[in-house]
Amino acid sequence: MLYSASQLWHRLWDQGQASVLVELGPDDTIAEITPALERFGAVGEKAFPSVTLAENQDLAQVYLIHVSSRRVQHFIDVLQADTENIDHVEINLEIALPLIPAGEASLAEGVGVLENDPHVHVQWALHAINGHDAHVLLQGLRPERKARLAILDTGIEAAHEDLAAAYLSGTTEDLHGHGTHCAGIAGAVTNNGLGIASLNWEGRFVELLGFQALGNEGRGTLEQIAQAIVDATKAGVDVISMSLGSVAEEPPRVLITAIEYAQDHRIIVAASAGNSNEDDINHYPSNIEGVIAVAAVNQDLSKARFSNTVGRLSRPIAAPGVDILSSHLNDSYKPLSGTSMATPVVTGLLGVMRALRPDLTSGEAYSILHETGTEVDDTPYVGRVIDAGAALRAVLP
Question: In the annotation, is 132 catalytic?
Fold first, then answer.
């Protein structure tokens, strides 16, 4: 396509167009619904052309159909009535990043630390997750291999001074900043005398890959997000980090299928819980089975006022998400708040865990996070707060 999915959505909607995701049966072809397409003046293309039937029968049979927004509901009704050829139909919805105000990151007490990153004293989250202890452990270790950590977001400023040495491939620019911020939290090169510290000690443990699930304005369609999951899976990543989401009574079928595709390739998937101070039970993709749902805590290790609760989900966990300093555009650094920030704290740890034990399954990884995590007053609502030092010790032989 000439346009990204997000650009195409706006372009088509401005022209009175909408887009629909149509999943055909495994033995069906687009020709079988051509009469319906012609009737409504709709045009379509394969949503995920890189996925074959042999790889995944569901994703391979999804088509992205463009139709008049005025007639879209009638079009959907007609398609849903065709149970012989069509397995599922859903609007290609758009989601947008919420904006959470962040205060100024304040300097921590001047305690001696191992890391030489100049902003490390501003990073209260490192202390909260026992990150300094993890660094002491990691400085004497070598990974079995570097883990590949996929940031599905607005892209990554790959040339950023604190990310360049850890960046591997993918989207090399970020005109928004959210993806670059998440990337720094997850995998900024630590102890390099620059910027901030993550758990990626001296860049030895994690490689960053950027996939543009969201456009330059922080919005993306279901198709765009699912395509990013597919691309990350084909790139052979170990962990997918998604600081994005929205609300629906049922998670979108296309995201369920894409995440299952990733999980079938042994990828650990984590997603932000959302920032509406509500129950996360209807917030996707964090509520999709097998996804680690990340809530945010503040400096007191209490639930951040904005964070959704994840206690009713199967894989709840918590991490710092208030005034988190990280990399931003043009080699800068900026504090931001949100479950968006808590998620890469968790996925950065998951990446290091995979680097030390590449055969670690998603279920084993979550069990370690939970069993070694810190119980806090709000644990019934947000899960346990990760303890990086304890989690890494649990991974080692």
Answer: no
pLDDT at 215: 94
Q: What is the pTM of this model?
A: 0.93
Q: Is 58 a catalytic residue?
A: no
Closest CA to 91 of 25, 203, 12: 12
Amino acid at 233: T
Per-residue confidence (pLDDT) for residue 100, from 0 to 100 = 72
**CB-based burial of residue 15 (10 Å sphere; 0-12 exposed, 13-18 middle, 19+ buried)?**
exposed
Question: Of the listed 153, 174, 231, 238, which one is catalytic?
Answer: 153
Active-site residue among 246, 337, 340, 362?
Answer: 340
Q: Is 153 a catalytic residue?
A: yes
Residue of 176, 178, 283, 328 marked active site: 178
Cβ-contact 143, 199 below 8 angstroms: no
| Residue 234 exposed, middle or buried by CB count within 10 Å (0-12, 13-18, 19+) | middle
Residue 201 in contact with residue 131, Cβ under 8 Å? no
> Cα dist. 117→26, 87, 146, 198, 336 in Å?
53, 53, 21, 10, 19
Structure-token pair, residue 324: 């988190």
Structural contact between residues 234 and 222, judged by C-beta atoms closer than 8 angstroms:
no
Q: Which one, of 337, 320, 252, 261, lies nearest residue 286 by Cα?
A: 252
Residues 243-302: pLDDT tens digits?
A: 999 999 999 999 999 999 999 999 999 999 999 999 999 999 999 999 999 999 999 999
- Which mean pLDDT values do the consecutive 10-residue runs of the chain (397 residues) have? 37 69 96 94 95 96 95 94 95 88 50 87 95 96 97 97 96 94 98 97 98 95 98 98 96 98 98 96 97 97 97 97 96 96 98 98 98 98 98 96
Question: Side chain identity at 252, as an amino acid letter?
Answer: P
151 has which bridge partners?
Answer: 210, 241
Beta bridge partners, 316, equal 293
Burial of 83 (0-12, 13-18, 19+ CB in 10 A): exposed
The pLDDT tens digits of the residues spanning 150-167 come to 999 999 999 999 999 999
CB 63 within 8 A of CB 44: yes
CB 190 within 8 A of CB 115: yes
